[in-house]
Design goal:
3 domains, TIM Barrel, five-stranded mixed beta sheet, six-stranded parallel beta sheet, alpha/beta, globular
Length: 448
């Protein structure tokens, strides 16, 4: 990636001094890109900074803001209490088969101004409009989203798993012009959060057996930092007799003083940097081995992104992805993500749920609002503020259809959908989305 000069910008047919008159038509190409403005076409989606503003560039060279929806699924959300998915049962009766559902759904998304199929969506849509794919690399190698476990990224089995995933998912798509790029994972736990109070160093310290690759990597980290076990003991407030004894440790005693806790925290953050770098490097290498053409869209941070992780990822991703359920974009966080990595940023989950939907809205991220009008108004405020940030290049709404009132697999029961369980749209919301989606390019240029 490089920054296009003003001279090149004009050469590609965009009159910078007259943007306000040029961009009003809002014509889009077959990819949903902005036909008014064009850069170099490479045949695949890429990113570029043009006159200080970041964009996706579609395969034909048109500038592109990724306006996506997650979990656009023919199968909807399975409800354990019912034993089936209400949405799936309804759309199967309505359309008869998945192909007809996919055609109708893609048409609706395009009519509402969306141009990207987000994560966890039905593959039947992938031939109909641009899409992203979540690979779940860490998740398939031992990470657990609900419990917050993290894989041993130093284990050769981890690297082999990633290669197997990329061989299956990426190699077969390397020439697909509709594919925007890959998310490596969703909402991994990088440290203390709602799932666990533990740091990843503590998890690696307790890996078993003592010969576990992650445990060996941690011991090597300590040996390089402290040289002797006595120096380590002094820093960590322990009384171990050897490095081998540390490797066999199954429980970490509490810190003996504030200084010891401060030293432990510094080591935890530095080792987190080592873990993160290995994770992102391994994911990048596996994807690039099997697909040199498509973007790596990051790891979809769960509302927080520890600085050591962000500092480690910049050279291995093309975009930084962040999930957020607040009423306003987290501007300071997004600015720091961009500044640290020098990469553009996307919001890859956001949503608003309303109590007038009749759904409980007691489980799932975000605070509920009162009405569908509130949902629509908050969408407009959120997206407008986000698109004023020159380094933000997209937003993906969560999700296509409402969740069951009785709860999905993890109990979520909220009004996140653009459509109800019967496939009827929430019209106030989709009307507002159509309007806002149609002018985000102008907003992004500071002309909207």
């Amino acid at each position: 990636m490089r920054t296009m000069t003003r001279r090149e910008f004009i050469k590609f047919g965009v009159l910078v001094s007259g943007l306000g008159t040029v961009v009003g038509a809002q014509k889009t190409c077959k990819y949903g890109g902005w036909t008014t403005m064009k850069a170099k076409a490479t045949g695949f989606f890429r990113t570029e900074q043009i006159s200080g503003v970041w964009w996706f560039v579609d395969p034909d060279g048109h500038l592109f803001i990724s306006k996506g929806v997650n979990h656009v699924s023919f199968h909807g959300d399975h409800c354990p209490a019912l034993g089936y998915s209400p949405y799936h049962r309804n759309v199967l009766a309505k359309y008869g088969n998945e192909e007809k559902w996919a055609e109708a759904t893609a048409q609706r998304l395009k009519a509402w101004g969306f141009n990207t199929i987000g994560s966890w969506s039905s593959a039947s849509l992938f031939r109909l409009m641009p899409y992203t794919l979540i690979l779940n690399m860490g998740a398939r190698a031992g990470a657990d989203w609900l419990r917050g476990t993290f894989p041993d990224v130093f284990d050769p089995k981890f690297h082999q798993t990633l290669d197997n995933i990329a061989a299956k998912e990426c190699a077969t798509r390397k020439n697909d012009r509709l594919l925007v790029g890959y998310f490596t994972d969703n909402e991994l736990r990088w440290g203390p959060d709602w799932r666990s109070t533990r740091h990843l160093l503590d998890d690696y310290l307790l890996l078993f057996p003592p010969e576990a690759p992650g445990k060996k990597a941690l011991i090597d980290f300590f040996r390089k930092r402290y040289s002797t076990i006595e120096a380590f003991n002094s820093a960590w407030g322990l009384s171990l007799g050897s490095w081998d004894e540390l490797a066999k440790l199954k429980e970490l005693t509490p810190a003996t003083s504030g200084e010891v806790e401060k030293r432990r925290l510094a080591d935890r953050l530095d080792f987190l940097r080592v873990i993160a770098r290995e994770y992102f490097r391994a994911c990048r290498d596996a994807i690039r081995k099997h697909d040199p053409n498509h973007l790596i869209l990051g790891v979809r941070f769960a509302g927080y992104a520890p600085r050591p992780v962000v500092e480690s990822m910049g050279e291995f991703v093309d975009v930084v992805s962040f999930n957020w359920y607040g009423f306003e974009p987290p501007t300071k966080i997004l600015e720091e993500l961009h500044r640290t990595t020098n990469k553009p940023v996307m919001i890859t989950e956001f949503s608003f749920k309303a109590m007038d939907s009749g759904l409980p809205n007691t489980r799932g991220a975000g605070q509920p609002v009162a009405t569908q009008k509130d949902r629509a108004d908050n969408f407009e405020k959120f997206v407008t503020a986000l698109m004023k940030l020159p380094y933000c290049i997209g937003y993906h709404w969560f999700q296509w259809s409402d969740q069951p009132a009785q709860g999905r697999f993890d109990g979520e029961n909220s009004n996140y959908g653009l459509v109800k369980e019967n496939d009827e749209p929430w019209e106030l919301l989709t009307q507002k989305m159509t309007e806002v989606n149609g002018r985000v390019e102008r907003i992004h240029l500071g002309k909207g």
